[in-house]
Structure formats: C-alpha cells, structure tokens
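hiii, so i know i said id send this last week but things got crazy w the move. better late than never?? heres the sequnce for the chain we talked about at the cafe, plus the structure i predicted for it. fair warning i was half asleep when i ran it
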Amino acid sequence: MVIAPQQLDDEVSFKLYTLNRLIQQTYQAFLLPLNLTYPQYLVMKVLMEKDNVPVHVISSRLMLESNTVTPLLQRMEKQGLLTRALKCEDQRQRIISLTCQGKDMRHDIEQVSVLVASSLAEMEMDCTLANGLGGLLSEFIKRIQ
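okay and structure toks below
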C-alpha cells in the first residue's frame, strides 16, 4: 500500500499535539493555584492511586523514562510534596511517597479533573464525544506501544 504525503492539518500527530497543548493550557489554569505543572499533577495522581512506589512504577505509569521522571521528582521533593527514600533491600531503588503536605492536596487534585471537565462542557464539549475520543486514544496507544 502506498501512502501519500499529507498536509500538516491532515496529520493525526499534529492534531494530537495541538489537542494535547490546548488541554494542558486548560489544566494549567487550575494547576497554577496549586503551584503544580501538568507533569507534577500526573505524578500526584499516580501517587494518590498508590503511594510508596519505586520510581520505575511512576515512569511506567506515565510512559516516561526514569531519567525524565527523576528531576521532576527531585523538584517535587524540594516543594515538600513527596519523599524519595532508598529501599532497604535494594539501595539502588528509590521509593516515592507523598508527604503530609502532598496528601493534604488530595481534594484539590481530585477537583482539577472535575473543573477541567466543567470547563470543557462550557465549551460545548460533549462528555460522550470526550469519552469516545478517550477510548479511541487508549486503543491507539495500546497498538503503538
């Protein structure tokens, strides 16, 4: 099968890139008061699902290399949101845990996705459409991994 070159606006990757950028801008309005970046928000979501995990679990969950996640975790540790402790059985492995300050942000973190959903609804983004897109993207990610 021969695939013809596409114009930029027809590229699926460009559409995903643009959508990602626009959605992150929407999130940023709600993350700024929490002093979190979008990647930090994602780390917080992972740790709120399961606390006290090795770095590789966070990396895997976010589909990022550990050398990308480590500086992010270091900044979050300086903010007092989490701790990075050496695992007793394996001194090469760091266990990431939320601090009391990080745990106290649970309600605010949970509210971010609610606020973003409300914001998208105000833009007349239908939940059914968004959920359908989410399903398509999950399938696409599964196949491309």
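btw The chain is about 65% helix and 10% strand. thought thatd interest u
miss u guys!!
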